[in-house]
Amino acid sequence: MIFTYNKEYVGDVLMVIIADRQDAKLAVERMGNVARVYRLDSAETVAWNIFQVSSLIDITERGQVLLTDKEIAILNQELSQAGFEQKLVNDLEPKFVVGEIVEMVAHPDSDHLNICQVKVAADKKVQIVAGAPNVKVGLKTIVALPGAMMPKGNLIFPGKLRGVESCGMMCSPRELQLPNAPQKRGVIELASSEAVGTAFDPIKHWQG
Q1: Number of helices and strands (H, E) in the chain?
Q2: What are the TRNA-binding domain coordinates in residue numbering (predicted)?
Q3: In this structure, are residues 177 and 186 in contact, taking their beta carbons and an 8 Å threshold?
């Protein structure tokens, strides 16, 4: 789940993104200060809007926010009181982590894309289709995993590129909006000593 809040531009609304809408037609069901956004074709919930959220919890950040289990419990109580049976689930796992490309093959339907197997934890690999010119086996970089919100607001969900499954994105300094980021294509290149699975830290991982 992605929790996002921007009182200045959106109002006192916590937006909770559950799933990629995949261009499906959406409908909204509102009860009290809670609105459920769902797909018309499957009734699958893709998002929640919780209005007047500052009366429930105190949010000082803007953009993607991390909530405590206690705050999630308060929000679930609001959903229940509004008449909804579903519950929000907190996910405190980091969404931007150090990853290492351990395998790479050319995309069969592209002259510039590569299909990369990227280690993002000691016991986890994900497949990412990437077009950056500097990707190679052994490269360590920053990976945005599903559930991440990029600095410009775009969301990371599993999907397909040219028909091939891709689960995440390897990030460039420019995409991460790092200071003095070079304005050219290419994922961030980390030292080989960086530990796979470590949460992204701009101060530690960028000396631009």
Answers
A1: 2, 13
A2: 90-201
A3: no
3-state secondary structure of 6: coil
Q: Which domains occur in the chain, in start order?
A: 2-82 (3.30.1940.10), 96-199 (2.40.50.140)
What is the pTM assigned to this prediction? 0.80
Could you tell me how many residues make up the chain?
208
86 strand-pairing partners: none
> What pLDDT, in 10s, does the model give residues 153-178?
888 989 888 899 999 999 999 999 99
Q: Counting beta carbons within 10 angstroms of the beta carbon of residue 59, is it exposed (0 to 12), middle (13 to 18) or buried (19 or more)?
A: middle
